[in-house]
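For reproducibility, we list the full input for the 5-amino-5-deoxy-1-O-phosphono-D-mannitol complex.
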Amino acid sequence: EKGGFDSFMDKEIHDQPQAVGDTLLGRTDVDGRLVLDDLRIDEAVLRSIDKIVVVACGTAAYAGHVAKYAIEHWCRIPVEVELAHEFRYRDPVVGPRTLVVAVSQSGETMDTLMAVRHAREQGAKVLAICNTYGSTIPRESDAVLYTHAGPEIAVASTKAFLSQITAAYLLGLYLAQLRGNKFPDEIVEIFDQLREMPGRIQQVLDRADHVRKAAREMSDVPSVLFLGRHVGFPVALEGALKLKELAYIHAEGFAAGELKHGPIALIEEGQPVFVIVPSPRGRDSLHSKVISNIQEIRARGARTLVIAEDGDTAVEPFADEVFWVPQCPTLLSPLLATVPLQVFACELATARGLDVDQPRNLAKSVTVE
Ligand code: M6R
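The corresponding predicted structure, in tokenized form, follows.
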């Protein structure tokens, strides 16, 4: 059942090109327009929403963070992301013009389910992004957008995460199309690019030996930090969560811009730091700012493990290791940059002799509050 892999997690990491491809399958009509058949919320209602609130826990919440960057940019609708267990205890402002998006692999996470119930009581429409047919959260939601990742067995979420991000992109592109957004050409271009992503994820997997080697060499480190900016920030959080869950070592993700506001004090000789570098082809000056961050931490002794886009030679002078990923539009880059971090956590935990499919103290779905 593990398809020749040593663990379900390793298999599921390698299933990701297919999981993303399957999530994209059958979502366009003959004219190439996006159709989300399973969305079942009246188009007039979707046109009238003035706010989106994503509720989720753990890895699914990080997919929500990525969704925020993409949907706000493509649709100009404000998007909040909230941990489901915080949402309902803070008297959130939601109503009939709010679309609440509940992201859950299992569809059974109690905290997320309670947030769904609370949102509906307030009159909000709820859309579930879910991987499990007929589970409770989609049943109790107004609509569902299924991810087609297939069953995820390992406790640590991998292919479900990439599929959730993919579904969130589909939702964003669909809303942009429906509401007549400002950049129709960009939407068509992004959808074409999205269809290229399974092949690019496969390329990242094909290059993963370098990550595995680095992970084995670092199997006794006490702590690893992760820095990212823009959509690289949720990727950093996810990289840290994977390492905590699987390898039981201290790991923390930061927004790279926060460094000077505190976390840089943690940097000492030999401290490993992953840095997810934004594309040099992207807007703004984010790329050069993150390069400066790498210089700053390296000057203080950090061991820098850099995830960068093919051709970004500017990172090389400051990187102890570079893990290259193919070029793609910035907003889609989490689908690539996450993969080396998953492989790293899986390999490091395995090198420590741990069971990556069943980490201690964790359950696959958390059905209690
Ligand atoms: O089934 P869900 O997507 O609702 O689960 C949410 C979290 O419990 C889950 O993502 C958890 O954080 C994973 N162990 C992450 O690897």
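The beta strands are 51-56, 79-83, 98-104, 125-130, 143-146, 223-228, 250-255, 272-276, 303-309, 321-325. Residues 57-60, 104-106, 109, 112, 155-157, 245, 362, 365-366 surround 5-amino-5-deoxy-1-O-phosphono-D-mannitol (CB under 6 Å). Both points were considered when choosing residues for closer inspection.
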